Amino acid sequence: QLQLVESGGGMVQAGGSLRLSCAASGRAFSSYTMGWFRRAPGQQRILVAAISSGGNTNYADSVKGRFTISRDNAKNMVYLQMDRLNPEDTAVYYCNTVPWGNYWGQGTQVTVSS
Question: Is 54 left (phi over 0), alpha (psi -120 to 50) or beta?
Fold first, then answer.
């Protein structure tokens, strides 16, 4: 069982950057593929970035080249560095396992103004 707590969201102007953090508690964190998901207003939650236990990464086309996912297994942390943000990135961001499990946290709000 995992407990996940997201932080690092905020308001930023288009072109700016934010770094999200996800603190995980629970055993075997390092064995999970982890991901960052987001839910924009009126839309379904989607996976934007994933990182395997071995560090292989994958990104949604909409964020490729702008977002970077990383993890620190020693600290049970997952990060999402978001650069060149645009208003379409406005959403609540969540971390979870991939495929997602019943570990949803409260998420962290990211708002990008034009």
Answer: alpha
| Count of beta carbons in the 10 Å neighbourhood of residue 72 | 11
Integer CA distances (angstroms), 17 to 51, 60, 74, in order: 20, 18, 25
Within 13 Å, how many C-alpha atoms sit on residue 86's CB side? 4
C-alpha distance from residue 59 to each of 4, 37, 45, 51 (Å) = 21, 11, 15, 9
CA distances from 93 to 9, 31, 37, 97 (A): 8, 22, 6, 13
> Would you say the C-alpha torsion 106, 5, 104, 110 has a positive or negative sign?
positive
Q: How do 108-113 and 10-13 pair as beta strands?
A: parallel
Whether the CB-CB separation of 111 and 12 falls below 8 Å is answered with yes
Quick one: pLDDT at residue 13? 98
Task: Assign 1 a pLDDT band (cuts: 50, 70, 90).
Answer: confident
